[in-house]
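Pipeline run #58 for the internal structure catalog. This entry was flagged by the ingest filter as a single-chain record with no existing model, so it goes straight to prediction. Upstream metadata was stripped on purpose; only the residue string is passed forward. Reviewer on rotation: M.T. Logging verbosity set to normal.
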Amino acid sequence: MLGVEDPASYEAGESGAYPGFTAVPLHLNPRVAGASCMTLNCKRSSTMPASSTSIFGKWVWVFSFSIAFAWVESSVVIYLREIYFEGSFYFPIHTTWHDGRAVLDTLMRVEFGREIATIIMLISIGCAAGKKPIQKFCFFMVAFGIWDIFYYIWLRVLVGWPENLMTWDLLFFVPLPWVGPVITPLLIALAMVVAGSQILYYENKGITFQWRWYDWTVEFACGLAMIVAFCWDWRNILRLPGDTTRNGMPNAFAWWIYLPAYVAAVAYYVYRLKRVLARHAGKAQAKLAENADIFRL
């Protein structure tokens, strides 16, 4: 194809068959290096990037860690419910007020620290598994999502709770109580697992995701809005003194905040994903056209 009768002599610089022409080794010519590999059927170097096995293997380990960690989380919650609420998973939660301030015992302060430590552990496993910052964040999303999903699965297996996806749950207690139907954190967890896994898959295939500051701003703003929806009824959940109507039973969930934020976050991610894939496809087509021009020379 390249008009080379003897590739060995060509690469060695023997230009006797081509008077006045000095041969250039194929591996030193960046425009034909890729074409020469296809033409001469050469093998890939062992120094090329690792195959998808590496990313998949890390993903499996993160998946396994998250499932096991979810069992630990569900076990701890069962113990806490037994200590504080006589094993109950239902509202209202016990809150003691004195002189306008919530009275927290030592174990509750320990629980605050445990919740923060849980998030740090999930972030740490993401940082350990990923190489680039985007990979670290994606592994964190996968870990958090799997952990949250299996947390409810294990509780269902161990104590038969929650009864259904609309059962109310206390999600976090830092800095305010996060409350919502079980389906709401599960939807977020599912989106995190899918998005994180997709980006890792495409990153491993050489498709780079360069998220700008405005991309992060949009996604984090949507996440913050969903947190506001979870904490919207905090005064009632804690039975803040000063209003006798606050009985600690959850009021209607703030779907009007949650749903637009969730849909916007998912829609923006899909939009950016399509843009990245379209740009990569365009570059691939341009490269094929360039290689075709080289073969015709």
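catalog note: The CA atoms of residues 11 and 25 lie 4 Å apart.
catalog note: Residues 52-287 form one domain.
status: ready for reviewer M.T.
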